[in-house]
Design a protein that fits this description.
five-stranded antiparallel sheet; globular; Phosphothreonine lyase fold; 10 helices; seven-stranded antiparallel sheet; RamC N-terminal domain-containing protein; 3 domains; Kinase-like_dom_sf; Phosphorylase Kinase, domain 1
């Protein structure tokens, strides 16, 4: 499974897509509804039930991933077992928090950690009962990236970590609790007391052969739905750099049942659509694909250059860059194709001083999970949630692109939980540079033309 550590860097969160507000669904149960009585605490994001074991500051943690579709049912099934065993545990307080957690908004290593059980003293009878209770949810939930699986496709994972603070006391030494590494899920010097309760999962040999052809050496981005990796093409006459993108089974599951694998299948279809409509030169070349049960991947040409968001965050974004992207969007729209998540981070460009006869040839668009043909059903994948949202996907592309230019990425308090933008309010601001002035003028024309 390709789940290397996350790519970290300034502006990295802008590559994470979110879904819109959760539709009307069953709210998660209050602890009293689960039988916790008065033995619970709450924070902005969590309910904590039971009493922590006195004096124990570290030990085993169990993680039960859940989805928007099954979280309420799973909690009603599992919580009585945990309460009956006298265990301390916490679970996400609402569906929005669950959605953000599974999307990677709170960090890649936190994906799937919807229910956390503090298991200081593992008992075979309890673990057997827990696995039986979770049996109906096999293969229905996302994986927890930096924890070991119990196997059998159960939604159950574990690691050894701190209950209090962020350090562990091991062999008389204090060491950091590395929560972002699968290799450190069971730290050196700790006996794995849970491995005897796990069962192996067979990997499709087709997947192994595919990954050996394109060995990845660096994670470029990690989200709940997919991972993007810098890799090498070992099949070429001479080694060449490529981009490997893997969709995650049950990753960032949507209310309609769509997951990361489905979104990547859509992206593969969009790359083929571009070729059919003469637009293949405006995106990295699609080199190879894999589509087997529970695993979908694509391999793309590696474009050696930064994206426009990198230029913006480093003060190098110019109106000429925006004109290039705008012309590319217009070309896509003329061929009946929309991008869906048009933003600065999804436009790659060659070196800023590179001289070419046709500067538009330097720009490539990436991340086509939300792209499609005008008139089809668009998936609910967006970076910004704008108001008013244009109904025409072409105007929506243009509006989202302009918002991505104007959004104050470095402003305190601007996080993935509040990326809602009022287009009219944008017009009231003063531009910080020529690029923002360009975007404000285009936005004014766009809104006036729509009669907003």
């Amino acid at each position: 499974m390709l789940r290397a550590g996350p790519a970290v860097g300034r502006g990295a969160p802008a590559v994470v897509s979110q879904t819109p507000a959760v539709p009307a669904m069953s709210a998660l149960p209050h602890p009293r509804e689960l039988g916790a009585g008065s033995s619970f605490n709450e924070s902005a994001l969590w309910y904590a039930c039971g009493v922590p074991a006195p004096g124990i500051r570290q030990g085993w943690k169990l993680y039960v991933p859940m989805t928007l579709l099954n979280a309420r049912e799973m909690l009603h099934r599992v919580a009585p077992l945990l309460l009956g065993a006298g265990l301390h545990f916490k679970y996400v307080k609402d569906l929005t928090t669950l959605q953000h957690l599974n999307a990677g908004v709170h960090g890649y290593s936190q994906i799937g950690k919807c229910l956390v059980v503090y298991l200081a003293d593992p008992q075979a009878s309890f673990l057997g009962a827990l696995k039986e209770a979770l049996g109906p949810y096999r293969d229905q939930c996302p994986a927890v990236p930096c924890a070991r699986p119990f196997g059998g496709r159960l939604p159950l994972f574990y690691r050894y970590g701190a209950y209090v603070g962020s350090t562990l006391a091991l062999d008389g030494r204090e060491v950091a609790d590395d929560r972002g590494s699968l290799a450190h899920a069971v730290p050196e010097g700790v006996r794995d007391a849970l491995v005897g309760f796990t069962e192996p999962e067979a990997e499709d040999p087709t997947v192994g052969r595919f990954l050996r052809r394109y060995p990845a050496f660096r994670a470029l981005a990690q989200q709940g739905k997919s991972g993007v990796f810098h890799a090498m093409d070992a099949t070429a006459p001479t080694l060449r750099q490529v981009v490997l993108k893997a969709g995650y089974h049950r990753g960032q599951l949507q209310p309609d049942g769509t997951d990361g694998c489905d979104l990547l299948r859509r992206e593969i279809a969009c790359y083929r659509l571009l070729a059919a409509r003469g637009l293949e030169g405006m995106a990295p070349a699609l080199l190879d694909t894999l589509d087997v049960p529970r695993k979908v991947a694509l391999v793309l040409e590696y474009v050696d250059g930064p994206n426009f968001l990198h230029h913006k965050l480093n003060g190098r974004l110019r109106p000429r860059h925006l004109e290039q992207a705008w012309r590319l969007l217009e070309r896509f729209h003329a061929e009946g194709v929309y991008l869906g998540d048009a933003k600065l981070a999804n436009f790659l460009v060659g070196p800023i001083d590179e001289a070419e006869a046709d500067p538009d040839e330097r720009v490539r668009v990436i991340d086509l999970e939300a792209a499609g043909t005008i008139g089809d059903h668009a998936p609910p994948i967006r970076t910004f949630f704008i108001s008013p949202e244009p109904e025409d996907p072409r105007r929506s592309d243009l509006a989202h692109f302009l918002v991505s230019v104007l959004y104050p990425y470095d402003q305190a308090g601007k996080t993935w939980t509040n990326r809602r933008v009022d287009l009219r309010a944008c017009l009231e601001r003063e531009p910080a540079d020529d690029a923002e002035a360009w975007a404000l003028e285009r936005l004014r024309v766009l809104l006036d033309g729509a009669g907003e």
